[in-house]
């Protein structure tokens, strides 16, 4: 395991990808207190909300208030999801260091999720990326369903590369490749990264795993063996699966930290503070979060 | 991933290691019906119960009736846990293909678990192994706490090797190395297997992971990269952690099968039948089992 990275950067996506898949409404004041806890955990990147139309994601309807009222830590880069120019304008007004745009490698998933074809999505994202860059912001391009699509099945790495190519051409700084339905096994990660890293530097690639079938930690191990050292994760494993009520969502930051710190990989994140922030949001949600190490530590206390 | 095994043999330990850590009593008739379902799933090895004094494991107090009344599939090898000659005699009377003896690589865990020092345990196991071999049975030696001990912390590979050496000298056919508290990360698996495989053929080694912190699937991946192709797992992830109520126990057979079949590794096991047997025992226990892919499939139906 001598080829593993010495440092891994975690982007905490719980306040965005986590909450957007939870049915419960978390009070704005509680969200703010919780994001403030995350800001003091040592994590370097936090995606604090989404400026998507609240009709689509009611759980994040308070993005502007959250963005205005969280206490910004100068050592943390704050991002938010923006679907279009209107969303970007809100995000810029409220304050972001980084804009996250998103689309799918699967035509059908893109249609279902964004209500547009891939070809129709490109010009919109091009505008958003250009305006965000002009405003001096970093931009991440999320590409979802990079392994499997709930509608189309297996997605070929060439389909993923096609979308990455366009996003990079439009000016994104990096790409987050999403196992949106948490279905990949390590051989799929290998196959995709063999293709992706033939074209792009590993520094441009973030992996975004969901733990729906319990494969995420093994997939992260595999990605690290390819030199990938940036991962998205969600505190406590917050956020379910929109296709299966009760199933696990994003890989839990807690479990990722257990892995990384156990391997001697530096993250700068205080596990204890992550546990505390997990218990805080777990109590507000009123249900046990799926993280294994959270369940262990909580019950062992 | 060209170095992965083509075939992996799973030993289903749910009826033993799973149930022994569950607080609920499962009716004998239900256990039998359930083990019969497992016998028809394509799994080649089932540990059906434990002949430990029922005072210590009340959940398995009906081992003799279970052993007598399950319908034996000639394609399945049936094993049971035996702590001493008395337990072995019961097991032989009832019927086993394989006896499983057990001890710990950690002196303190051995004392806590067996109430004897490691040195005091050896002559007892020597007798059991010899009598089982004389009766024409296979014998597996479980070595627990091979990575970390809840009392002593890190266990050196040399401590594990010391116990393996003795068990093999006494005549066990193979050794199951147990991450009893589910604490290992892949670098620990690597370190242990580097040592173990310098001395023993990989065919003699079975890995037994618990998923307490969500590392088990990644640890199995690592072990397979060392050529290990025998794993213990528990249907649905049945069986908790005696040190932390509510935490996950044995790695779930369901999740292991999702990994293996996804990697194109043959097991001979029908995932659908494993799901059905999981739902059966989940209903009897009256609580959700921790397997991620079980939760996914159940909720997606």
UniProtKB/TrEMBL annotation, chains A, B:
The keyword Lyase appears for this protein: yes
InterPro entries hit by this protein: Aldolase_TIM (IPR013785), HMGL (IPR043594), PYR_CT (IPR000891)
GO biological process: ketone body biosynthetic process; L-leucine catabolic process
Entry-linked PROSITE patterns: PYR_CT (PS50991)
Pyruvate carboxyltransferase domain: residues covered: 8-275
Protein keywords: Lyase, Metal-binding
One GO MF term: hydroxymethylglutaryl-CoA lyase activity
Transport found in the keyword field: no
PANTHER family: HYDROXYMETHYLGLUTARYL-COA LYASE (PTHR42738:SF7)
Family: Belongs to the HMG-CoA lyase family.
The name this protein goes by in its record: Hydroxymethylglutaryl-CoA lyase
Organism encoding this protein: Oceanobacillus arenosus
């Amino acid at each position: 395991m001598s080829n593993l990275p010495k440092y891994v950067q975690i982007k905490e996506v719980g306040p965005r990808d986590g909450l957007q898949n939870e049915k419960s409404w978390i009070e704005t004041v509680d969200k703010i207190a919780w994001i403030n806890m995350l800001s003091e955990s040592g994590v370097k990147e936090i995606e604090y909300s989404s400026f998507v139309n609240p009709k689509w994601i009611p759980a994040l309807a308070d993005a502007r208030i959250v963005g205005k009222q969280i206490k910004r830590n100068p050592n943390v880069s704050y991002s938010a999801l923006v679907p279009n120019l209107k969303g970007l304008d809100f995000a810029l007004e409220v304050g972001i260091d980084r804009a996250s745009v998103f689309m799918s490698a699967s035509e059908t998933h893109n249609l279902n999720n964004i209500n547009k074809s891939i070809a129709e999505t490109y010009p919109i994202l091009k505008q958003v990326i250009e305006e965000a860059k002009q405003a001096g912001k970093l931009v991440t391009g999320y590409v979802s369903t990079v392994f499997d699509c709930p509608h189309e099945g297996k997605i070929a790495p060439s389909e993923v590369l096609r979308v990455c190519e366009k996003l990079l051409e439009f000016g994104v700084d990096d790409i987050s490749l999403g196992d949106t339905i948490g279905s990949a096994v390590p051989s799929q990660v290998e196959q995709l990264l063999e293709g992706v890293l033939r074209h792009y530097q590993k520094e441009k690639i973030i992996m975004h795993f969901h733990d729906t079938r319990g494969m995420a930690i093994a997939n992260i191990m595999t990605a690290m063996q390819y030199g990938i050292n940036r991962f998205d994760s969600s505190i406590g494993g917050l956020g379910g699966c929109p296709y299966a009520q009760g199933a696990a969502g994003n890989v839990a930051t807690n479990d990722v930290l257990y892995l990384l710190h156990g391997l001697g990989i530096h993250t700068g994140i205080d596990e204890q503070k992550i546990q505390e922030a997990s218990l805080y949001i777990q109590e507000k949600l009123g249900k046990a979060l799926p993280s294994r190490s959270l369940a262990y530590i909580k019950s062992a206390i």
